Description:
The protein is of the alpha/beta class. It is built from ten helices and eight strands. It is 38% helix and 13% strand.
Amino acid sequence: xxxxxxxxxxxLKRFGVxxxxxxxxxxxxxxxxxxxxxxxxxxxxxxxxxxxxxxxELGHSIEDADLLDIAEMLKVNxxxxxxxxxxxxxxxxxxxxxxxxxxxxxGSIAKAPFQFMLVPQAxxxxxxxxxYPDFVSRYKKNKFRIGVPKWLADARKVTASEELRxxxxxxxxxxxxxxRSLVHHFLGLHNFEELRALRIVPGTDFITTLDTxxxxxxxxxxxxxxxxxxxxxxxxxxxxxxxxxxxxDFETKSVNHNVLSILAAARSTP
Length: 270
Protein backbone atom coordinates (compact mmCIF):
# COMPACT_ATOMS: atom_id res chain seq x y z
CA UNK A 1 0.00 0.00 0.00
CA UNK A 2 1.19 3.51 -0.82
CA UNK A 3 0.63 6.43 1.55
CA UNK A 4 -0.04 9.98 0.47
CA UNK A 5 1.26 12.19 3.28
CA UNK A 6 -0.74 15.41 3.64
CA UNK A 7 1.85 17.59 5.31
CA UNK A 8 1.52 21.21 6.49
CA UNK A 9 3.24 23.75 4.26
CA UNK A 10 6.20 24.12 6.61
CA UNK A 11 7.02 20.41 6.37
CA LEU A 12 5.99 19.80 2.76
CA LYS A 13 9.43 19.81 1.16
CA ARG A 14 10.86 17.58 3.88
CA PHE A 15 8.19 14.88 3.96
CA GLY A 16 6.32 15.31 0.69
CA VAL A 17 9.15 13.63 -1.23
CA UNK A 18 9.15 10.39 0.78
CA UNK A 19 6.45 8.73 -1.34
CA UNK A 20 5.57 8.79 -5.03
CA UNK A 21 1.82 8.96 -4.39
CA UNK A 22 0.08 12.20 -3.41
CA UNK A 23 -3.46 13.40 -2.70
CA UNK A 24 -3.64 17.09 -3.56
CA UNK A 25 -6.38 19.35 -2.19
CA UNK A 26 -7.84 21.35 -5.08
CA UNK A 27 -8.80 24.45 -3.10
CA UNK A 28 -5.27 24.73 -1.67
CA UNK A 29 -3.80 24.77 -5.17
CA UNK A 30 -5.73 27.99 -5.79
CA UNK A 31 -4.81 29.67 -2.51
CA UNK A 32 -1.15 28.72 -2.06
CA UNK A 33 1.60 29.14 -4.67
CA UNK A 34 4.12 27.01 -2.73
CA UNK A 35 1.64 24.14 -2.55
CA UNK A 36 0.79 24.46 -6.24
CA UNK A 37 4.39 24.57 -7.45
CA UNK A 38 5.44 21.66 -5.23
CA UNK A 39 2.84 19.27 -6.62
CA UNK A 40 3.25 20.46 -10.20
CA UNK A 41 6.89 19.49 -9.85
CA UNK A 42 6.06 16.11 -8.29
CA UNK A 43 3.77 15.37 -11.24
CA UNK A 44 6.48 16.45 -13.68
CA UNK A 45 8.94 14.08 -12.00
CA UNK A 46 6.58 11.16 -12.52
CA UNK A 47 4.88 10.77 -9.15
CA UNK A 48 1.24 9.65 -9.13
CA UNK A 49 -0.86 12.66 -8.20
CA UNK A 50 -4.56 12.46 -7.31
CA UNK A 51 -6.55 15.70 -7.18
CA UNK A 52 -9.19 15.72 -4.43
CA UNK A 53 -12.48 17.54 -4.98
CA UNK A 54 -12.69 19.37 -1.62
CA UNK A 55 -15.84 17.68 -0.31
CA UNK A 56 -14.29 16.60 3.00
CA GLU A 57 -12.12 19.67 3.51
CA LEU A 58 -14.66 22.34 2.54
CA GLY A 59 -17.92 20.56 3.19
CA HIS A 60 -18.67 20.67 -0.54
CA SER A 61 -16.93 19.75 -3.79
CA ILE A 62 -15.54 22.64 -5.81
CA GLU A 63 -17.09 23.52 -9.17
CA ASP A 64 -16.64 20.94 -11.91
CA ALA A 65 -14.94 23.22 -14.43
CA ASP A 66 -12.53 24.57 -11.81
CA LEU A 67 -11.61 21.02 -10.77
CA LEU A 68 -10.77 20.10 -14.37
CA ASP A 69 -8.84 23.35 -14.89
CA ILE A 70 -6.68 22.61 -11.84
CA ALA A 71 -6.17 19.02 -12.96
CA GLU A 72 -4.95 20.21 -16.36
CA MET A 73 -2.68 22.85 -14.83
CA LEU A 74 -0.98 20.35 -12.48
CA LYS A 75 -1.06 17.52 -15.04
CA VAL A 76 -2.36 15.10 -12.43
CA ASN A 77 -2.90 11.37 -12.95
CA UNK A 78 -6.32 11.15 -11.32
CA UNK A 79 -9.27 13.33 -10.30
CA UNK A 80 -11.73 12.56 -7.51
CA UNK A 81 -15.20 12.99 -9.01
CA UNK A 82 -17.34 15.49 -7.04
CA UNK A 83 -19.49 13.92 -4.32
CA UNK A 84 -21.84 15.14 -1.59
CA UNK A 85 -21.08 13.79 1.85
CA UNK A 86 -23.80 11.52 3.32
CA UNK A 87 -26.12 12.08 0.32
CA UNK A 88 -26.60 9.32 -2.25
CA UNK A 89 -28.88 10.99 -4.81
CA UNK A 90 -27.07 14.33 -4.62
CA UNK A 91 -23.81 12.49 -5.27
CA UNK A 92 -25.28 10.77 -8.33
CA UNK A 93 -26.36 14.19 -9.61
CA UNK A 94 -22.86 15.64 -9.15
CA UNK A 95 -21.24 12.59 -10.74
CA UNK A 96 -23.47 12.68 -13.83
CA UNK A 97 -23.00 16.43 -14.33
CA UNK A 98 -19.24 16.12 -13.96
CA UNK A 99 -18.95 13.21 -16.39
CA UNK A 100 -21.09 15.12 -18.89
CA UNK A 101 -18.64 18.03 -18.69
CA UNK A 102 -15.70 15.64 -19.07
CA UNK A 103 -17.27 14.21 -22.21
CA UNK A 104 -17.93 17.70 -23.61
CA UNK A 105 -14.38 18.85 -22.91
CA UNK A 106 -12.41 15.79 -24.00
CA GLY A 107 -14.74 13.92 -26.34
CA SER A 108 -15.24 10.98 -23.98
CA ILE A 109 -14.33 9.85 -20.49
CA ALA A 110 -11.69 7.53 -21.94
CA LYS A 111 -10.01 10.40 -23.79
CA ALA A 112 -9.56 12.55 -20.68
CA PRO A 113 -5.87 13.10 -19.82
CA PHE A 114 -6.36 11.58 -16.36
CA GLN A 115 -8.26 8.78 -14.71
CA PHE A 116 -11.01 9.16 -12.12
CA MET A 117 -11.96 8.08 -8.59
CA LEU A 118 -15.59 7.58 -7.62
CA VAL A 119 -16.67 8.14 -4.00
CA PRO A 120 -19.98 6.47 -3.08
CA GLN A 121 -21.95 8.30 -0.40
CA ALA A 122 -24.89 7.47 1.87
CA UNK A 123 -26.39 8.63 5.15
CA UNK A 124 -25.08 5.76 7.31
CA UNK A 125 -22.79 2.72 7.33
CA UNK A 126 -25.72 0.41 6.59
CA UNK A 127 -27.02 2.64 3.79
CA UNK A 128 -23.54 2.85 2.27
CA UNK A 129 -23.35 -0.95 2.14
CA UNK A 130 -26.80 -1.00 0.52
CA UNK A 131 -26.01 1.60 -2.16
CA TYR A 132 -22.40 0.65 -2.89
CA PRO A 133 -23.30 -2.14 -5.41
CA ASP A 134 -25.36 0.29 -7.48
CA PHE A 135 -22.58 2.89 -7.54
CA VAL A 136 -20.18 0.22 -8.72
CA SER A 137 -22.47 -1.32 -11.33
CA ARG A 138 -23.44 2.05 -12.85
CA TYR A 139 -19.84 3.00 -13.58
CA LYS A 140 -17.94 -0.30 -13.64
CA LYS A 141 -17.32 -0.12 -17.39
CA ASN A 142 -15.27 3.04 -16.75
CA LYS A 143 -12.97 1.19 -14.31
CA PHE A 144 -12.91 4.10 -11.90
CA ARG A 145 -10.97 3.67 -8.67
CA ILE A 146 -13.29 3.66 -5.66
CA GLY A 147 -12.73 6.02 -2.73
CA VAL A 148 -13.92 4.80 0.68
CA PRO A 149 -14.94 7.81 2.84
CA LYS A 150 -13.20 8.35 6.16
CA TRP A 151 -16.45 8.94 8.06
CA LEU A 152 -17.33 5.25 7.66
CA ALA A 153 -14.49 4.35 10.03
CA ASP A 154 -16.38 5.49 13.10
CA ALA A 155 -19.89 4.84 11.80
CA ARG A 156 -20.01 1.27 13.08
CA LYS A 157 -18.25 -0.58 15.90
CA VAL A 158 -16.54 -3.82 14.99
CA THR A 159 -17.35 -6.78 17.22
CA ALA A 160 -17.09 -9.70 14.79
CA SER A 161 -13.79 -11.06 16.08
CA GLU A 162 -11.39 -10.66 18.99
CA GLU A 163 -8.64 -9.38 16.69
CA LEU A 164 -10.75 -6.50 15.40
CA ARG A 165 -12.29 -5.17 18.60
CA UNK A 166 -10.95 -1.67 18.17
CA UNK A 167 -12.83 1.60 17.99
CA UNK A 168 -12.99 3.31 14.62
CA UNK A 169 -12.71 0.24 12.39
CA UNK A 170 -15.98 0.61 10.51
CA UNK A 171 -14.16 0.54 7.18
CA UNK A 172 -12.42 -2.72 8.01
CA UNK A 173 -15.80 -4.37 8.57
CA UNK A 174 -16.77 -3.17 5.07
CA UNK A 175 -14.15 -5.31 3.35
CA UNK A 176 -16.44 -8.26 2.62
CA UNK A 177 -18.90 -5.90 0.93
CA UNK A 178 -16.39 -4.37 -1.51
CA UNK A 179 -15.83 -5.39 -5.13
CA ARG A 180 -12.28 -6.75 -5.14
CA SER A 181 -12.06 -6.55 -8.93
CA LEU A 182 -11.83 -2.75 -8.58
CA VAL A 183 -8.96 -0.76 -7.10
CA HIS A 184 -9.89 1.10 -3.90
CA HIS A 185 -8.45 4.03 -1.97
CA PHE A 186 -8.98 4.82 1.73
CA LEU A 187 -9.75 8.53 2.03
CA GLY A 188 -7.95 9.61 5.21
CA LEU A 189 -6.84 7.56 8.20
CA HIS A 190 -9.09 7.51 11.26
CA ASN A 191 -6.40 6.10 13.55
CA PHE A 192 -3.38 3.82 13.50
CA GLU A 193 -5.55 0.79 14.29
CA GLU A 194 -7.00 0.94 10.77
CA LEU A 195 -3.56 0.38 9.31
CA ARG A 196 -2.80 -2.35 11.86
CA ALA A 197 -6.05 -4.09 10.94
CA LEU A 198 -5.21 -4.01 7.24
CA ARG A 199 -2.06 -5.96 8.08
CA ILE A 200 -3.91 -8.84 9.74
CA VAL A 201 -6.97 -9.06 7.51
CA PRO A 202 -6.29 -11.27 4.45
CA GLY A 203 -7.11 -10.24 0.90
CA THR A 204 -6.76 -6.46 1.14
CA ASP A 205 -4.45 -6.03 -1.86
CA PHE A 206 -7.21 -4.24 -3.82
CA ILE A 207 -6.85 -1.30 -1.40
CA THR A 208 -3.72 0.19 -2.92
CA THR A 209 -3.47 3.72 -1.50
CA LEU A 210 -4.37 5.78 1.55
CA ASP A 211 -3.91 9.48 2.29
CA THR A 212 -3.35 10.94 5.74
CA UNK A 213 -2.25 13.97 7.74
CA UNK A 214 -2.27 11.90 10.95
CA UNK A 215 1.52 11.67 11.50
CA UNK A 216 1.73 15.47 11.64
CA UNK A 217 -1.61 16.22 13.30
CA UNK A 218 -0.82 13.81 16.14
CA UNK A 219 2.50 15.52 16.80
CA UNK A 220 0.93 18.98 16.98
CA UNK A 221 -1.71 18.30 19.60
CA UNK A 222 0.27 19.20 22.71
CA UNK A 223 3.74 19.71 24.11
CA UNK A 224 4.22 16.25 25.58
CA UNK A 225 6.25 14.12 23.15
CA UNK A 226 5.27 10.75 24.63
CA UNK A 227 1.58 11.41 23.97
CA UNK A 228 2.22 12.70 20.45
CA UNK A 229 2.98 9.26 19.04
CA UNK A 230 0.37 8.15 16.57
CA UNK A 231 -0.08 4.65 18.02
CA UNK A 232 -1.49 6.03 21.29
CA UNK A 233 -4.29 8.12 19.79
CA UNK A 234 -7.72 6.60 19.17
CA UNK A 235 -8.93 9.45 16.96
CA UNK A 236 -6.68 11.92 15.16
CA UNK A 237 -7.95 15.28 13.91
CA UNK A 238 -6.09 18.26 12.56
CA UNK A 239 -5.49 21.30 14.77
CA UNK A 240 -6.84 24.67 13.71
CA UNK A 241 -4.95 26.33 10.83
CA UNK A 242 -3.12 23.05 10.30
CA UNK A 243 -1.57 23.87 6.93
CA UNK A 244 -0.24 27.23 8.14
CA UNK A 245 1.45 25.96 11.30
CA UNK A 246 5.20 26.56 11.57
CA UNK A 247 7.64 23.65 11.76
CA UNK A 248 8.29 24.64 15.38
CA ASP A 249 4.63 23.90 16.20
CA PHE A 250 5.31 20.19 15.71
CA GLU A 251 7.30 18.00 18.08
CA THR A 252 10.13 16.93 15.77
CA LYS A 253 10.87 13.56 17.35
CA SER A 254 7.20 12.58 17.28
CA VAL A 255 6.75 13.68 13.66
CA ASN A 256 9.70 11.54 12.59
CA HIS A 257 8.46 8.59 14.63
CA ASN A 258 4.91 8.90 13.32
CA VAL A 259 5.90 9.16 9.66
CA LEU A 260 8.24 6.17 9.92
CA SER A 261 5.58 4.15 11.76
CA ILE A 262 2.96 4.89 9.08
CA LEU A 263 5.28 4.09 6.18
CA ALA A 264 6.57 0.91 7.84
CA ALA A 265 3.03 -0.30 8.52
CA ALA A 266 2.00 0.47 4.94
CA ARG A 267 4.95 -1.49 3.53
CA SER A 268 3.86 -4.54 5.52
CA THR A 269 0.40 -4.49 3.94
CA PRO A 270 -0.20 -6.19 0.55
